[in-house]
Amino acid sequence: MAYSIQPLTAALKHAREEKGLSQRAFAQSIGVPQSRLCRIESGAVDLRASSLLSIARALDLELMLVPRQYVPVVRSLARKIDQTSADYEAQRPLYQLDGEDDDA
After folding, report:
1. CA distances from 83 to 52, 53, 62 (A)
2. What are phi and psi of 48, to 5 degrees?
3. How far apart are CA 74 and CA 51, in angstroms?
4. Which of 26, 44, 75, 81 is an S-S bond match for 39, by CB 3.0 to 4.6 Å?
């Protein structure tokens, strides 16, 4: 039975782009040729688990095995965290007066 790896590779690419890293810079930092990273992100390469872990951890991601029945719960929690982060960023002032602390 074959499964599409596309959602996983798309998530890795999105995480890299969120960090503002080019393929070339990220590939160099993890020690793989840029052409291989391109094939990984496009889903053209069957990744070994060790390679996937290395790439994920370099992007500050953690791979987890979640029982299928709990996947909706995990996704819901992740959305709530993203929304909470976005709400917090929206509430932060875009300016700060000299001598003003962030905690005040």
Report:
1. 27, 27, 20
2. -80, 155
3. 24
4. 44
Contacts for 58 with CB less than 8 Å, ≥ 6 apart: 26, 29, 30
pLDDT tens figures, 51-104: 999 999 999 998 889 999 999 998 888 888 777 665 655 666 656 666 656 554
pTM over 0.70? The answer is no
Q: State how far the alpha carbon of 64 is from the alpha carbons of 52, 56, 57, 68, in Å.
A: 12, 11, 12, 12
> Comparing C-alpha atoms, which of 23, 12, 25, 19 is closest to residue 54?
12
Domains and CATH numbers, the chain: 6-91 (1.10.260.40)
